[in-house]
Write a structure and sequence with these properties.
This protein folds into two domains: 130 residues; 52 residues, Arc Repressor Mutant, subunit A (Orthogonal Bundle), CATH 1.10.10. It is 70% helix and 0% strand. The protein contains seven helices and no strands. Helix 1 packs across helix 4. GO terms for molecular function: DNA binding.
Length: 206
């Protein structure tokens, strides 16, 4: 039987891994092209590797500024400005350095654009994880002790109605998926996944 619940829970991690791989690949492709452009412009080969960092690293810094601004409820306009401007600069130099021909220029334009998109997707994944991890921890039921059996659900946080609903749903429907549980309970998928992981780690659900 296909473990649908485990697959759904692993999707965010797999997405982040894929995006990180794309970002690293795009950075290296753009880095190599920009370094060659720097050498052609007369920059010392010994220092030419710094030129791509001045361009593409600021692109990444812009995304980090956007993330910081969103977490602090500040305007992300500066971060977006840096991200857009240096994506444009990187794309321009990649295209200029490419051989003649529309296919070649389009091919050289892909890495910096892919880097911009993948970095922003990675920041979205981080924002989602941070939002989940910032959820306050519920208090433990004072009547439960370490020796209390799992069947009494003492590992379920006290006064956490959502966790109780999730637990009840998966006990009544053990083959249910996260998506089906979210639709049935009227909750967000990330909320279901978070409580499901907590309940599984506590040994309440298998």
């Amino acid at each position: 039987m296909i473990p649908v619940k485990k697959i759904e829970q692993s999707i965010p991690d797999l997405t982040a891994l894929a995006v990180l791989t794309i970002a690293a690949s795009a950075f290296l492709l753009s880095f190599a092209n920009l370094q060659a452009a720097a050498q052609e412009a007369g920059i010392s080969p010994f220092l030419s590797w710094l030129w791509p960092l001045c361009v593409d690293a600021l692109l990444i810094a812009g995304s980090l500024m956007i993330l910081r601004s969103n977490l602090r409820n500040e305007s992300p306009i500066v971060g977006w400005s840096v991200l857009i401007v240096f994506t444009g600069i990187s794309t321009l130099f990649n295209v200029i350095h490419s051989p003649d021909g529309i296919m070649s220029r389009l091919s050289h334009a892909v890495p910096p654009i892919a880097l911009c998109i993948s970095v922003e997707l990675l920041m979205m994944c981080l924002r989602s994880d941070i939002a989940i991890n910032d959820t306050p921890e519920e208090e433990q039921d004072p009547q439960c002790t370490e020796s209390a059996p799992v069947q009494q659900d003492c590992n379920i946080p006290a006064r956490n109605d959502t966790a109780q609903l999730v637990m009840q749903h998966f006990r009544e429907h053990p083959e249910s998926t996260v998506t089906a549980a979210a639709e049935s309970l009227g909750l967000h998928r990330t909320t279901i996944s978070r409580h499901l992981k907590t309940l599984s780690a506590a040994g309440v659900l298998s």
